[in-house]
C-alpha cells in the first residue's frame, strides 16, 4: 500500500495539507516565510505535490523543489522545524506511526534539495525534485 493510500487517498492528503498549512502559517519561526504568499494556491500546489510523491495517481508538473525554495535561503534548523510540523500534522489527522515515519524518511531525503547550500543530491528514480 502506498503512503497516498495509507493516508486515505485524496481526502487524506487534503486533510494533511490543510493541517500542515495551518500549522506552518501559525508557527513563529516559519510563518513569516509565508507572508504575502497566495495561501490557497500554495495549498493546491502542496496537495498535488504530496499526492504525487506519496504514491497517488497525481502527475505533478510544477516547479522543482530547489527552484521553488532557493530564494528563501532555508537552513537546516528551518528544515528540521518543517519536518517536526509535518510529523505533528500527520499525528493530528491520526496517521499511523508507520506512516509518520515513512513521510519523515521521504522528507529527510529532500534536505539536499531544499536547504540552501546543503551538500549531497537525490539520484533515485522518481526523485521528488524531478517530480516537482
UniProtKB/TrEMBL annotation:
Gene3D superfamilies: Globins (1.10.490.10)
Coiled-coil blocks: none
Pfam families: Bac_globin
InterPro entries referenced in this protein's UniProt entry, alphabetically: Globin-like_sf, Globin/Proto, Hemoglobin_trunc
Transmembrane segments: none
Keywords in alphabetical order: Heme, Iron, Metal-binding, Transport
Protein name: Group 1 truncated hemoglobin
Native source species: Microcella humidisoli
